[in-house]
Amino acid sequence: MMGGFHHVSVMPEETVGGLLTTRDGVYVDCTLGGAGHALRIASELSPEGWLIGIDQDAAAIAAAEERLGAVSCRVSIVHDNFRNLDSILERLGSSAVDGVLFDLGVSSHQIDTAERGFSYMHDAPLDMRMDERQSRTAEEIVNMYSEAELARIFREYGEERWGKRIAAFIVEARKEVPVRTTAQLVDIICRAVPKAVRRASNGHPAKRVFQAIRIEANDELGILDASIRAAVHHLRPGGRIAVLTFHSLEDRIVKSALHEMARGCICPPGLPVCACGHKRELRLLGKAGKPGADEVRGNPRAKSAKLRLAEKMPEER
Ligand SMILES: C[S@@+](CC[C@H](N)C(=O)[O-])C[C@H]1O[C@@H](n2cnc3c(N)ncnc32)[C@H](O)[C@@H]1O
User: Fold this and answer.
1) The pTM is what?
2) CATH code at 28?
3) Residue to mutate, 8, 32, 299, ligand 1, most ligand atoms under 8 Å from C-beta
4) Ligand 1 pocket member 57 (CB < 6 A)
5) Is residue 111 part of a domain?
6) 88 phi and psi, to 5 degrees?
7) How far is 120 from 155, CA to CA, in rounded Å?
8) Are 93 and 135 found together in one domain?
9) 81 lines ligand 1 (CB under 6 A)
10) Residue 130 — left, alpha, or beta (φ > 0 → left; ψ -120 to 50 → alpha)?
11) Can you give the pLDDT at residue 1?
12) Distance 81 CA to ligand 1 centre (A)
């Protein structure tokens, strides 16, 4: 814990150990958070090394500035969305980098700060924006989306089997009074999910719906594929990308982007000569890594984590 910012980094050794290849290199942490991974990276770099840290959350930026204040390498901290990686690196004058890290999703600090509205455990305004400069809040989604749109995001982003029914209950409830708080939403979800199902399930009935609304509010999945590809584009030959994912939806997107970039020709089988011209850009560094039982015991948030590592191929002549 530092400056009131609490977040335990997931798979820190495996992630940073797998990412770093040179002490004098340029490394980008696209999801700084409380700078747990970033501090580890910075501590390994020489004074010639450069750490670029990005986060869209102002509280994370403040915590990271404090935490990285005394490291000996060069540090640039950028309050922005990693979807803008191209322009961020262009502004900093560092188009080619040696490593990029994504530790996706929300930090414990965001969840635990009740007034941010991420948690179904605390009553607060329905907000859920990681970047509070952005206009779309969870409240707007819950009150303005059609029943069909709500059902779709609950199904796609929450994998919630009662999504259709919950959407119908929300639309009924908001006819009476707008849904402005997390407690109102939790109450509606609890009424929509049958009692027997609630009793039988081991998670909170609101968990999946809150995840879905958070993903939608922050467009977490919509920007992922292009951001991973942009990061790979900026890697020097031999440079590495490390991605930590926390649920099957984001992992599917990351896996499919990395695997596609690790393939050569993607023509349909049977063509006599290659027509796609697709070049292999990456070498996958093993299968997805998972945290050990000890780590999960100490940090339950690590339970669903998967670490994917890949290396940029040398350029073909
Ligand atoms: C899991 S935390 C990172 C924790 C960090 N690795 C550590 O060890 O302390 C994820 C962070 O990424 C940020 N984030 C998520 N999506 C982002 C995006 N599209 N652009 C910039 N930051 C993002 C969140 O605001 C949050 O602070």
Assistant:
1) 0.94
2) 3.40.50.150
3) 32
4) yes
5) no
6) -65, -45
7) 18
8) no
9) yes
10) alpha
11) 43
12) 9
The DSSP letter of residue 278 is -
Count other C-beta atoms under 10 Å from residue 107's C-beta: 27
Q: Which domain holds residue 197?
A: 119-217
- Greatest CA separation for the chain: 67
pLDDT tens string 295-316: 999 999 999 999 999 999 998 6
Percent of the chain with pLDDT over 70: 98
Tokens 């299968």 correspond to 287
Q: Is the CB of 54 under 6 A from ligand 1?
A: yes
Find out whether the beta carbon of 63 lies less than 6 Å from any atom of ligand 1. no
Residue nearest ligand 1's atom 26 by CA: 33
CB-CB contact of 11 with 85 (8 Å): no
**Contact, 213 vs 142, CB < 8 A?**
yes
Residue type present at position 18? G
At residue 231, the 3 state secondary structure works out as: helix
Domain shared by 298 and 211, yes or no: no
Task: Name the β-bridge partners of 28.
Answer: 52, 100
Distance of CA 316 from the midpoint of ligand 1 (Å): 34
